[in-house]
Amino acid sequence: MTDQRKRQLIKLAALSAITASTALVVGCGKKEEPAPAPAPVAAPAPPPKPDPLKIAFAYVGPVGDGGWTFAHDTGRKAIEKEFGDRVVTSFVENVPEAADAERVFRDMVGQGNKLIFGTTFGYMDPMLKVAADHKDVKFEQATGYKQAENMRTYDSRTYEGAYMAGVIAGTMTKTNTLGIVASIPIPEVIRNINTFTLGAQSVNPKIKTRVVWVNKWFDPPKETEAATALLNGGADILFQNTDSSAALQTAEKMGKRAFGWDSDMTAYGPKAHLGSAIINWAPYYIKATKEALDGTWKGGGGVWWGVKEGAIDMVSMAEDIPADTKAKVAEIKKGLADGTFHPWKGPITGQDGKPFMVEVTDPADATKKIKRSLAKDEVADDGFLHGITSYVRGVEGKVPGGK
After folding, report:
1. 141-147 long-range Cβ contacts below 8 angstroms, 24+ apart
2. Engineering a disulfide at 113: which of 53, 54, 67, 285 sits with its beta carbon 3.0 to 4.6 angstroms away?
């Protein structure tokens, strides 16, 4: 074999080795590629947040009256605190108890409010009319008695606070003459006048009460005039069923004593203030709003809440009230809460010295009215209480328009 042939064979062998080596390297270096990761699945979009429930309030007076309207507005604020951004509330103040109230309610509906509160008796008929035209709106009317499928009523047993105030007044009076600044002669107000008197007489049988009517819920000048006349006429303690703090302020200026009404009015006359019979509307407003939000709200009914439900209380009693009187008020409050005490328990005497009579629905015929009194130890039912239109013994004068 020639040298040239040997060289060719060696070169060929070398080339074959290189080729095999390269193939081995390429074969070993080839790795299986991982399967591509699945595309991320988009999370489902959260359901859209429901629009807040729009709630409107119509007030008969200004929110700064310190009494009735102030108490309602405190309840409105409690709704906002309880439900946060789930609700939006608004109010219109100084709405007259007249045809103008209907316009206000229709405007509230037009603004998208689905729960509307009318906070005084005189709104009853205008609200009923608007409710009939807007069945998708829920209406709540304070202190009235007419209802519909989308309208219900609510009230507070203010007479319970009046009775506790009377017990204090009967103890603290030096003249045995009490004065009452009264608003409008409807059963609610007449009932409070009578119950205040019964409370005072329960600790002091000599009590006489005198009443001056101003024929408005909120009129500070007229309330001041009435309070002044009562104090100049011999009364040394004032009670009121009006919405401002004028009676208390007048007593403060004249060196006499008085009560706050609907809200704690201590600040308006700290020296004169004996205590405040307050209304707490928050429990009911929160309940009604919750029902509207969760779909359980039902119209056509009504409630009348008192001490038992946390709607009525006597607060900020003066330091100079005797301890035994404060203890008696506490005992009465406990009895009102658990149902063992009732201010209207027979027998009760009328202004004429005869058994106190009211007109009620005949239980045997709902189309008829009958007069009845309370027997010994008989407790007045709500029908009896709603029928009160005259004075009990000890109240002087006559109910305006009464027989």
Report:
1. 141/117, 142/72, 142/117, 142/118, 143/188, 145/302, 145/386, 147/299, 147/300, 147/301, 147/302
2. 54
